[in-house]
Amino acid sequence: MRAVKHLQRPLQVLVTDVNEAPIVSNAIVDQVIAEDIRLSFQFIEIHIF
User: Fold this and answer.
1) Model-wide pTM > 0.70
2) Share of the chain residues as helix, strand and coil, in percent rounded to the nearest 5
3) What is the phi/psi pair of residue 38, to 5°?
């Protein structure tokens, strides 16, 4: 049977709400398709998020 040691320390997390609008690095252009037509869209790997 192994001995188990526990360590307890207080942890404080401070979250500040800055309420800023998100910044878009790579916008996705608007897409227009006809009704009942399948849309296929791919992300380029180097530009993902």
Assistant:
1) no
2) 5, 0, 95
3) -75, 135
